[in-house]
Amino acid sequence: MPTILISITSLLLGIGILLVGHGLAGTLLTLRAAVEGYSASLIGLIMAAYFAGYIAGTVYCPGLINRIGHIRTFTVAAALAGSLVIIHGLIIDPWIWLVARFIYGICVVAIYLVIESWLNVRANNTLRGRVFAVYMLVDLVAMAAGQQLLLVGTVQQLELFAIAAALFSLGLLPIALTRIPEPERVATGSVNLKQLYHTSPIGLFGCLAAGLIGGAFWTLGPLFAHQTGLTATGVAAFMSMTILGGAILQWPVGLWSDRIDRRKVLAAASFGAAGVALISAFVSSMPMWAMLTVMFIYGGLYFVIYPLSIAYSNDRSDPGQFITLSSSLLLTYGIGATLGPLLGGILMQFSGPRSLPVFYSVCLLALGLFTLNQIKNTKPVAPENTNVFVPLVRTSPIALQVESDEVEPASVTELDTLGDL
Fold first, then answer.
1. Model confidence, pTM
2. CA–CA separation, 50 vs 105, rounded Å?
3. Are 162 and 89 in contact, with CB atoms under 8 Å apart?
4. pLDDT in tens, 272-305
5. CA 150, CA 401: separation in Å to the nearest integer?
6. What is the dihedral of CA 305, 367, 59, 215, to 10 degrees?
7. Structural domains in the chain?
């Protein structure tokens, strides 16, 4: 394992630097939109464009990678994404921002696809899950670190946008200079939501709920924190602790799900996150330590919903199904993530900022009740058919396939055409 990690240091360093900028850019744009006086529904629309672009990117980017290669694709995507961040700071226009966010989403999925396909061929089946677990930890820690950069400048000025753009450029260096051989190509697959529903209805509804909540959190969470009275320091802490909770608590919850019926863990996490979400509506009136604790617990319980849904779907799928199922799961998440900011923005505009955590809670309660119904009416997966839980965040279809024994370390990387942050 140490030898593998050393060999992929340049990949992890490059994506880590870049994701610090990515984490800063998303929160920064939401706060700048709020300062400009944009309505919550308009902010939700602008931010939803990112997820729509992400879905579109999973269709277009595999072909681009196959035509021009991994390093060139990464270079083009990172350079364009950094330029778009600067454009957001230079041109204050909601419709230009909307188009830019759509293109930015395409760029980000290209970046994820390049890195994850590279990681996939560097690790054998025995180590692949652990390699991706380290990668996911780097992903979340970098995103959390990006929130803290809000404190080094002011939202109204160009400097924070410039810092985010510079980090995209710096992230290029370790990748451009790497001597790691590129994967041969990226293959494509298909989508079948009907098959997904029949194979794993919990997986479908779990990914949909995770998308609705996640899309709203990443895009409107900073707006909620701002509108309820938190300072810039408070907003940064609010976002960072939620993300760090997700990075750290996935491990014990995931290990618990390997030992008992995974559906029971999913239901418990859903109900627990629903309760903590309601408490989080009042974080602005809490002492700092209490707010940090609440958001850490919420992040840990919420962020585990997606990987539990993926793991359960993998438990129930045949090896020949998983490529199509992973594409369908990611498309489902992407649909939810696109709708989440739209619905959350409308709710916040007409019912106030505290309606956002209520929205989280309703989605989580619905998922918990649906899961309990499935536990009552369907048999659990046999222990011999379960797989080891792997911590995941929504990145690309490659990451979903780390639990599939189909993928050989030196073979063509399997990639589905639709999927997703």
1. 0.86
2. 5
3. yes
4. 999 999 999 999 899 999 999 999 999 999 988 9
5. 35
6. -70
7. 11-403 (1.20.1250.20)
